[in-house]
Amino acid sequence: MGGSVSLPVRADLRALDADALAALANRGLVKRAAREADREPPALSSGDGATVVAEFADGVRAELPEGGLEQGRCTCGATGACRHLLGLIFAYQAALPETPPSEDEPPAEAPAWSPGGFTDEDLATRIGSRLVETARRTHRSGYTARIRRGAAPVAELPAATVRFLVPGDLGYVHTDARAGVRDDVIALAVWAFRAADEQHPGADECSVDVGGAPGAAVTGSGLETVIEFAAEVLRSGAVHAGPGLVAAAAGHLAALDRAGLRWPLDATAELADQLTAYRDRSARYAPERLADLIAELFARHRAVTADGGAGHRARVLGSEEAAETPLRRVRLDGLGARVTAVDGQRRVEIFHGQAASGVVLVSHRQWETDEDGPALGRRRIAGATVDAIASGVLVTESAIRSASRTVRLSAGRIAKSTVTVSHGAWEGLPPGLLAYDYAKLAAELDAMPPRPVRARVRAELVRVLAIAEVGESWYAPGAQRLSVEIRDGSGVTATVEATHAAVAPGRLDAVAAALDGCRGRPRFVAGSVHRSGGRVVIDPYAIAADGPPVVPDLAMPPTGQGLGNADGTADVGDPLAEAVTAARDVLAEAAHSGLAHLPGAHTDRLRSARAALARVGLHRVASSLDEVVARLGPDPGAEATRAWVDAYLRVSLAADLR
Asked: What positions does the domain SWIM-type occupy (predicted)?
C-alpha cells in the first residue's frame, strides 16, 4: 500500500497514540487491532470529504469521518469503537509516516494548547445546545475543578474526569461518565480550563473555582438555618437532644439537597446520624466526631461569609454536580482495603486507583456478622472475592461514581465486571497518585486548605509511595503500633505506621513481613498519608513486592511468633500531642453534654487543658480556651457558641498540623 494511495490529511488520526485509543475503547481491543493491522493491513481509500475508508480482507468495510470515533461506521455490526475502526487508524498512521525533521531543524515539540480555546459554539456543535444550557446552570451556581495540563490535558470535576486527547479537536474527548449521561461535563471542563488560563496561566497543575455570580449580591452561605440547628445541638448536647431535634435534621437535609450544597449536606447527615447513634446506644457514636461535625458546619459558613470568602464558595460548599454519575468502561487498580467493626456490623472499604483520571475511588460493603478481615476477604462482590478486588485489577462497565468519589457497582450490570490478578505494577500510576519524592508530597500536604473546609472526598489523602529502601522498624506494645521507616531515592524518610485491630488480626504481621522482604523487595506502599513530627506518615492499605499486592487487613495472622524483626520499645509520651488531645477531649465532652448542661468541674478541666497547651508553647490555642471559660454560664448564648467553635477549630487544626 505504502504512500501510493492519496488519502486525506487527518491531524486527529496522526495524534492518537495507543494510550489515547485505549481510553476511547479498551486496551485489549487496541492491542488486537494493532496486531491485525500489522499482520494484514486493510486497503485504505478516501471517502466523502475527509473520510478515510478501510477495506479488510474478511470483507468488512469501515469508514471514519471527522468528529471522533463515535462518528465511525463499520459493517461488522459491533456497537461503539470496534477493532476495524481502530485498525483503520493504525493502518492510516503506517501509510502516512511522520516527515522526519531536516538536519538543520531541531525536532518539533508538541504545541502547547488549552481546551479553554474552544468556543461555546464548538461546544454546542459537539454536545448540543440543550446540554450546554444544562452546563450553564451549574456554571451560574459555581463549581470546583482540578486542572492538569500536558499533551492530553485533564479536568477533574466533582462527578467525572474529562481528558482532551487530540489538540484542537472536541471529537476526541474522553470522560469516565457513561456516554450520553453526563456529556455536559465536557462544557464544564472547557470552562474550567478558561478559568485556569486566566488565573494560573503557567501552572502545570492547579485548582480553580469556576463560575458563580461575581459581583452579584451574596446574602449568605445558604447554611444559616443549618448553623442554628448545629448551635442548638451544641447547647443541648447529644445527651439532651430530644427526638424533635433529630427529626428537624430531615428538613435541613432536604433544603441542602435542593440547594446543591453537597459538602454541608454530607456533614449534616453525619451529624444527624451521630445523634441517632447516641440515642440507640450504638458504637457508631463518638463525642469527638460529634464535635468535629458541629465545628465543620460553622467553619464552612464562616469561610464563605468572611471578607473575600465568596470566591471559594463552590470549593467550600460543594457544587451542584449530580449526587451520582454512571461511568463508562473503567479500569480500577486495587490499592488495598480497610476493615472496621461497629456494633454487630463489619465494614470493608476498598480503594481503587483510576490511572486514567489520577484519582482514588472507594467502594464499600458491610455485613451483619462477627467475621474478621481474613474471612471477609473471601466474601464475593460482582463475582470476585473482596481480596481479589482489593489487590487486583477491576475492569467494569457497571460503576456509578458519587461526587465524594465513592463508587458502587450497579446490581443489574454485574456481568460486565471482570477482575484479574495484579502484580503491583503501580509505576504506571500518574504523579497525582504515585509519589517518588517524599519531600514534594510533604509540601503538597502542607499546602492543602484546613480539613474542615476541604471537599469531603473519601480517599482524598490516599497515595502510593515508591520505596527505594526500608529502614529500621519498632513496635510500641502499649499502643499495639508498628512503625517502619522507608526512604525515597533521595534518602528522605517517611514512616509506615500500622495499629492493631481485633477485626484485622493479621494486619501488623502482614506489614512487617511485606516490608521485611519476605515476599521480595518491597517496591510500593498504598495508604492514607498525613504529616506528623515533620515527616510523612502512611497508614498502609496494601504493599506491593513480588506477586500480587499484600492487603494487611485481609491477611491471615501467623501461626507462630509474629512481627518479624521489629524492635519492641516502650511507649514514649509526646507532650505536644498529649496537650492537644486533652484539649480536644474536654471540648468534645462539652459538645457531648451540651454547653447548657456542663457540670461545675468542667471549667476546671478547661483551665487545666489551657495550662498544658501553654506549657508546650501553643499560647494562641491556649488563649482560646480562656474565652470559652469566660463565656460559659447557666444560659449560654451565641457568644458561648462562638467561643467554643473558635477554640475547637484552633485545637483541631493544631492536631492536624502536628
From this structure: 60-93
- CA–CA dist 276, 268 (Å, integer): 12
Q: Answer whether 62's CB lies under 8 Å from 72's CB.
A: yes
Find the farthest-apart pair of alpha carbons in the chain and give their distance in angstroms, rounded. Answer: 95
Distance separating the N- and C-terminal Cα atoms of the chain: 67
| Side-chain-side CA neighbours of residue 327 (13 Å) | 31
Q: Kindly tell me the sign of the dihedral angle through the C-alpha atoms of 124, 126, 128, 132.
A: negative
> What's phi and psi for 292, nearest 5 deg?
-55, -45
Helix (H, G, I), strand (E, B) or coil at 44: strand
Residue for grid cell 464548538: 122
Contact 42, 87 (CB under 8 A): yes
The model's pLDDT over 573-629, given as tens digits with 9 standing for 90+, comes to 678 889 999 999 999 999 999 999 999 899 999 999 999 999 999 999 999 999 999
Separation of alpha carbons 15 and 13, rounded Å: 5
CA 459 to chain centre: 5
- Grid coordinates belonging to 273: 446520624
| Parts of the chain with a pLDDT under 70 | 1-5, 97-112, 179-181, 213-219, 307-311, 319-323, 410-415, 560-573, 658
Residue 430 DSSP code: -
* Nine cell digits for residue 8: 486525506
For the chain, state the CA radius of gyration: 28
User: H or E element: which one contains 497?
Assistant: strand 493-499
- Show the cell assigned to 416: 460486565
Look up cell 504512500; give the residue.
Answer: 3
Please report, to the nearest 10 degrees, the dihedral formed by the alpha carbons of residues 341, 342, 343, 348 taken in order: -50
Beta-bridge partner residues of 221: none
Number of helices followed by number of strands (H, E) in the chain? 20, 27
- Pairing outcome for strands 61-64 and 161-164: unpaired
| Residue whose C-alpha cell is 486507583 | 353
Could you write out the three-class secondary structure of 279-311?
A: HCCCCCCCHHHHHHHHHHHHHHHHHHHCCCHHH
What is the reported pTM? Answer: 0.78
